[in-house]
Write a structure and sequence with these properties.
single chain; alpha/beta; eight-stranded mixed beta sheet; 43% helix; 18% strand
């Protein structure tokens, strides 16, 4: 499958010329190993891929005994993998490098040696147990890999022409027209339900059957639960509680994660490691309350008040009905038939968070409660930075009649903020200086 991250790998190869390794970090099953192997096959004379998740005893012995003699080290690896390595024309891939941190520490010396390029892939890269007792190499560039975005999903469907035209309409604020908008929304609804995990997209392309796709996603979610049990040592019960509570938290009108729903007297400090684990695994996208939206968002970040979105909306659809049969999953039917209920608006907000994150944004929202003065009581779904201004973004899932929080926010911070946006299910519209965009245009913000 065509992935945008491939261009980033090419840029690294051409620009850095072996002066640093590239570390590709992402959730399990997001496609890291596939893209690394594809990159090695297409861009190098040869490549050697070491899978540390299934490292053989002979390979471990090479790393333990021969690392101080790089000539012998590479001769043995070349012989074991039956791969000829060529100076400055070969790529060495450390796959699932978090499973053997000593290999990551060795990167410093391999880069200094200079004979090959080095690409690392992994998940849970920065978790304490995976960096303990090693020196993190400074000769390492860290890049995050996300699930397939909507444009990549369309590429997989054989459509490479729609998004460039959508971008033109976005830049000119020109409506698409009813027929084209309806077609793109139909594709976008499929994307919401399938998601961006490559295995799920492949299953859908092969069968065009949501039930087959749902089975693939259930296997991925089961894998995540197994990872939690295996790698979240000491606090796996709390990680599972937070993970299992995601659908119910997001289905609420106010989507801030409330720990009291898990445990009555729960404190954030008790669950901090659980949230950190899910964040490091890139299973969730955290969205923090920025209490002063006219300054740098990170500077006013309230760390204990957060929304917790799933990194892939297709997985959220399946997670919501994880223990039920596919035929009981009402979300598929309602999304396809455009019969949105209030709690299903969680999917629209989640897909926007996914597209914003893939576009490079960190996620922030604005929330303020004031029972004495309703004018100060407001909540904005997302805040993004564009052209050095903070821009409010509201997500509306169905027919709506007003946007009172957005109006109050614009009045309160008038002159200090940038363009206001509403993302909804209809065509482009500019009204009262607010730009209304179809949900699928979140990728352009």
């Amino acid at each position: 499958m065509k992935r945008k991250i491939y261009g980033r790998l090419l840029e690294w190869k051409e620009k850095d010329q072996g002066s640093c390794a590239l570390l590709l970090d992402g959730a399990r099953r997001v496609g890291k190993s596939y893209i690394a192997r594809q990159f090695g096959e297409k861009e190098y004379r040869s490549y050697l891929m070491i899978d540390f998740a299934h490292m053989q005893r002979e390979v471990r012995e090479i790393f333990e005994n021969d690392r101080n003699d790089l000539d012998l080290f590479f001769n043995k690896l070349s012989a074991y993998y039956r791969t000829t390595l060529y100076r400055r024309e070969s790529l060495v891939i450390f796959d699932e490098v978090q499973r053997y941190p000593e290999a990551r520490e060795l990167i410093k010396y391999l880069v200094a040696d200079g004979r090959y390029d080095y690409l690392e892939t992994g998940s849970l890269i920065s978790l304490k147990r995976n960096v303990e007792n090693i020196v993190i190499p400074s000769e390492e560039e860290h890049v995050e890999m996300f699930p397939m975005d909507f444009e990549e999903f369309l590429w997989a469907m054989g459509d490479e022409t729609t998004v460039p035209y959508l971008k033109q309409c976005f830049e000119e604020l020109r409506p698409l027209g009813q027929a084209l908008h309806r077609r793109v929304m139909n594709d976008f609804r499929q994307y919401i339900l399938v998601g961006g995990m490559p295995q799920a997209v492949t299953a859908y392309l092969e069968t065009k059957n949501f039930e087959d796709t749902d089975r693939v996603k259930k296997r991925i979610l089961t894998l995540y639960r197994q990872d939690i049990t295996k790698f979240a040592g000491g606090y796996e019960a709390r990680v599972l509680s937070v993970f299992d509570g995601l659908p119910s938290q997001l289905s609420k009108t106010e989507k801030k994660y409330k720990l009291s729903s898990i445990e009555k007297e729960a404190r954030f400090r008790d669950y901090e490691n659980a949230f950190m684990w899910l964040t490091e695994a890139m299973v969730v996208n955290n969205c923090y309350n920025a209490t002063e939206p006219t300054v740098g968002l990170a500077m006013s970040e309230e760390h204990t008040t957060r929304k917790c979105y799933m990194a892939d909306t297709g997985l959220l659809v399946t997670h919501t009905f994880m223990d039920d049969r596919f035929t009981d999953n009402e979300l598929y039917r309602d999304i396809l038939l455009d019969r949105m209920h209030v709690n299903e608006g969680m999917l629209m907000e989640n897909i926007v968070s996914q597209e914003l994150r893939a576009g490079g944004h960190r996620l922030y929202f604005y929330s303020r409660s004031d029972t004495d003065n309703r004018e100060n009581h407001m909540e904005i779904d997302f805040l993004i930075r564009k052209k050095r201004k903070i821009c409010p973004v509201e997500v509306k899932s169905g027919v709506y009649r007003k946007h009172s929080s957005l109006d109050k926010f614009r009045r309160k911070f008038s002159g200090k903020i940038g363009q206001a946006y509403i993302l909804y299910t209809k065509d482009i519209l500019v009204r009262e200086e607010v730009i209304h965009l179809p949900l699928y245009m979140a990728m352009f913000l």
